[in-house]
């Protein structure tokens, strides 16, 4: 039993980091905005890492899952606003809808794309976010390019005060929970057969097949899990904080770029990586936006190239090597 | 009347397709030789567009002259990126080159944004029109089409007739064998990468001759997707397949836009873009090595 | 009772016939060698048995199950293991984790937990004497150690049939002797049939295969106990280019 618990020690630094963030945000005035942003980036990183880090495949259309998650929440709020007595359950339904929609989209894309190897898969995903956006706009689904605005409905369901509290505080708490959950699932996968299968297929897909691993099945598991968390992040961090959704905004490749930066910076495939990456990127972006607004991609693009060429294991990867033979090794993975 | 419209459409599609095709040849060349997918492809097209814009607006240089200049710029960029980055990643897992080319694309977008700002710009190269029976075509578009075909032909000749071209071809067939025969494989890689980027940047110029507006740092993204559709259509490793794939794609894109415009209640531009994405998935499912690829190069 | 039956298997690539109506049987616990120079079709035959290729004609049966069109990952749980000529470790995972993968997805697939697989890995590591490298990333091992790990990983799959692809290639003769006797011992203890693919018949002799199947240009020309095969004129001709009666 003790051995079982010991397997989960590495979650402690992750939860500790989130706890510290929360405490800082609550107790140091004026920092909650920054904390909320950092939590968003950590959650995004954890979600993206489940796929990129564990399979070594990159999904360039990743933001599409955040987008549909946002739509899920938005649809729940707009369509159910007039049903008496649902109240805050609409939010819960919104999350469920977000989960459902990301699962469906990821299964649809995955069924096609995950049969393809490495580069072909990446190519297939390049248009997913755009494709979905243009589908919505082109076929005028869910109000097409006009998007959905639901401030009024939100106020109606929750009352003005609660709605405001949701947008400025509780939504961020939900993001924190999502980030923690994503970290937990990551560790769970790592310790289970899923993790071993993913490592094997990441290192050598053909050898993995010969060893008896159904690589497509495991790729799909990682892909759908990662997509679901993206949907939840979109629902909490976009729909619940800014009550409107416009297709060009929620399918912007920009967020995929940030996710890639965060995961690579922190260390792809590590548990703590997304936390480290999210913090570093988030803080840098925050301060850059004060000194040199709009410059963060200009600065991070070459950093990414540097990491790929010189430090592919990322911050946590390097830290892991440092602490390899010490007591800390059990906590840093 | 319908026949006229359709054949007019066809001609427009072919003209556009030739340019699309030429714009994709660089992508296929780089994949064919280095087995690297240049995810930042669209950004290089954008660079070509801006080079043309600047040369025209600031120096009054005609886009026709801009084509070889853009090509030169592209080759320079290609060599720089090859020797600083790509060369070190030849032995790395595929993911590394995918992300590196992606990051290079982002970097280019940001640098261009820094220099030129993010507004949409254009230029006006008024050289008149030409009547082609069923349709009227601005001469600039015709020049762009002719230019694309010329470049494709030049590339073909280069591969067939020059030593460097033969060396590159041998590397594609069998890099170890080529090495043993004394071919400078590293040099062939560098040259191919530079050539591929050069072609891509030059295609940006030709593209602006066709669509001289809407030039902005982020215009590349849409073209990356189209280029990939064309590339898998024609065979990811074959520059000539890419050219013909471009023709096919141009016709389909133009035709579908007209068709979608006939359906009430939908937005044809958006649906056409959605269609390209669907085409990509379908082709990748059926035959990832390219619908049009036989054994030819 | 045959463990593996290959019946009239033909594999073509375009116009080229790589494997031409090859048939043979392997019984439980047998140690046979498939021998043939480059181009003889032995690699293709190997790939057909392990599932990388499906034959155009013919049938492959394992343990009474028709596996002709079964994908590779489904053959492993049935008890077919394979090693590669150039070892393919999962580089960033430890030796222990590598071998555990074999246990998890091999013939015990679905019946062992992660911890049990790690235990099996530990035991297998002891048998191959890789204890001091247990926690090292597999990518950092020397080529010989990687070879050992490759074999250990296949053994952890608890296979009934082990396909060994030029396992001894590039090894020092002393190491080969050790390796061979080690493999034979384990094979006997666990009743594993071994198909060893080698390029030259002498290696099969050194590897002490009981029986050899000699391929030439895609067809089986000899299927006999090793000693007999060595003296078979057809074999001599294949390797020397002329029948033994001449010069």
Please give a handful of descriptors for the protein shown.
heterotrimer, B: 297 residues, mainly alpha, two-stranded antiparallel sheet, 11 helices, 74% helix, C: 247 residues, alpha/beta, Rossmann fold, 2 domains, 4-stranded antiparallel sheet, globular
Low-confidence stretches of chain C: none
N-end to C-end Cα span of chain C = 44 Å
From the 3D structure, determine the CATH topology of the largest domain in chain C. Answer: Rossmann fold
Number of domains of chain C: 2
Q: List segments of chain A where confidence is low: pLDDT < 50 over at least 5 consecutive residues.
A: none
Strand content of chain A: under 5%
* Strand numbers in spatial order across the main sheet of chain C: 6-7-8-3-9-10
**N-to-C series of helices and strands of chain A:** HHHHHHHEHHHHHEHHHHH
Order of helices and strands of chain C: EEEHEEHEHHHEHEHEEHH
Structure description:
The complex is a heterotrimer of chains A (333), B (297) and C (247). With 333 residues, chain A is mainly alpha-helical. Chain A has one domain (12-253). Chain A is 76% helix and 1% strand. Chain A has helices at 2-6, 11-27, 32-55, 63-80, 89-113, 118-126, 128-138, 151-158, 160-191, 193-203, 205-210, 215-239, 247-250, 253-266, 273-291, 296-310, 314-322, and strands spanning 148-149, 244-245. Chain A has a two-stranded antiparallel sheet with strand order 1-2. The longest helix of chain A is centred in the middle third of the chain and has 32 residues, at 160-191. Chain A starts with a helix and ends in an 11-residue tail after the last helix. Chain B is mostly helical. Chain B has one domain (2-217). Chain B is built from 11 helices and 2 strands; from the N terminus they run ααααββααααααα. Chain B has helices spanning 2-34, 41-59, 63-84, 94-116, 139-161, 163-173, 175-180, 185-210, 220-234, 239-262, 268-286, and strands spanning 129-131, 136-138. The longest helix of chain B is centred in the N-terminal third of the chain and has 33 residues, at 2-34. The mean pLDDT of chain B is 87. Chain C has 2 domains: 2-79 and 159-240, P-loop containing nucleotide triphosphate hydrolases (Rossmann fold, 3-Layer(aba) Sandwich), CATH 3.40.50.300; 93-158, no CATH class. The longest helix of chain C is centred in the C-terminal third of the chain and has 18 residues, at 173-190. The chains are: A mainly alpha (333), B mainly alpha (297), C alpha/beta (247). Chains in contact: A-B, A-C. The A-B interface holds A 56-58, 60, 112-113, 115-116, 118-120, 122-124, 126-128, 130-131, 134-135, 137-140, 144-145, 253, 257, 260, 264, 294-295, 297-298, 301-302, 304-305, 308-309, 312 and B 37, 39, 85, 88-89, 92-96, 98-100, 102-104, 106-107, 109-111, 113-114, 221-222, 224-225, 228, 232, 260, 265-274, 276-278, 280-281, 284-285, 288.
